[in-house]
Design goal:
alpha/beta, globular, 9 strands, single chain, about 45% helix, TIM Barrel
Length: about 280
């Protein structure tokens, strides 16, 4: 069982221009085309069973379109062996964040994605803290982009110190910090966040973090709250798996990271899969 806890897809009609725009903005090259079909192909090649899709609501008025699409995607894949499972999202400037979080819950979505850079809000802003507090009350998982965003390198809106403040003031449940706690700020992650009551995903670390730094954070934080993730299409799923498997990580801990830990967050979505389909001629 391998669960990629951090991926992105775009509707086919806008995927091409969206990928091109983001490549130019971030000065990186995508590993895939950003479509649903492209992600499924990547999963099959890499041996990934479930990919969590994380949509980003960049304007409050996108709420219904994005979350309805997420719910439809989950319905499509709920009985599939190779499964996409989408979270929802909302903007911190929502006119009624509690109602929107209740809507996300009613749609059967397991969590939300927040992106301080694309939502132009610092993570320790009261608007985010209120969202995290009520999401916790509803039992939703909250995934936040943490650390430097390569498209906005000069203004980091979610730093380890901001995260620490939020954790101390709100104590959010099931808070997942993308990019191993904070992209390109891993010394502060080890100092301030490792060992705290948060989850770390491994998205966009392969090729960027030093092996010994990754392992040091793992030892301090513990393997029980680390989730395999790639940020596909911005990192390759196969390449990210190869990176993790090349590190000095015990098999029992690697098994937790690759899929067992995701099952703790929701067994129905991440472990209860049908048997592989038999292929016929």
């Amino acid at each position: 069982m391998v669960v990629d806890f951090h991926t992105h897809i775009f509707p086919e009609k806008i995927a091409g221009k969206t990928i091109t725009y983001l490549e130019e903005k971030a000065h990186i090259k995508a590993f895939g085309n950003g479509t649903e079909e492209g992600l499924i192909r990547s999963m099959e090649e890499a041996g990934v069973d479930v990919s969590v899709v994380l949509p980003v609501v960049t304007r409050p008025e996108q709420f219904h379109t994005i979350n309805d699409f997420a719910a439809q995607l989950n319905e499509k894949y709920q009985d599939k062996r190779t499964r996409l499972w989408s979270f929802g999202g909302l903007h911190p400037d929502s006119a009624d964040y509690k109602e929107e979080l209740r809507t996300i819950k009613k749609l059967g979505l397991l969590g939300i994605k927040l992106h301080p850079d694309y939502q132009d809000t610092y993570f320790d802003d009261i608007k985010y803290m209120r969202i995290l507090d009520y999401a916790s009350e509803l039992g939703l998982v909250s995934v936040v982009h943490a650390g430097v965003d390569v498209g906005f390198p000069d203004n980091v809106r979610c730093t380890p110190r901001q995260i620490l403040r939020v954790v101390r003031e709100v104590s959010p449940k099931n808070l997942v910090l993308a990019h191993y706690g904070s992209f390109d700020m891993w010394e502060e992650v080890e100092e301030l966040l490792a060992g705290k009551d948060v989850w770390l995903d491994t998205a966009f670390t392969a090729g960027y973090i030093k092996d010994e730094v990754f392992v040091n954070i793992l030892k301090k934080h513990g393997a029980d709250r680390i989730l395999f993730a790639t940020d596909s299409p911005w990192s390759g799923q196969k390449e990210s798996l190869q990176f993790l498997r090349s590190l000095a990580i015990e098999k029992k801990d690697l098994d937790k990271i690759l899929g067992q830990n995701a099952g703790k967050l929701n067994e129905q979505a991440f472990t209860n899969l049908p048997d592989k389909e038999e292929k016929t001629c």
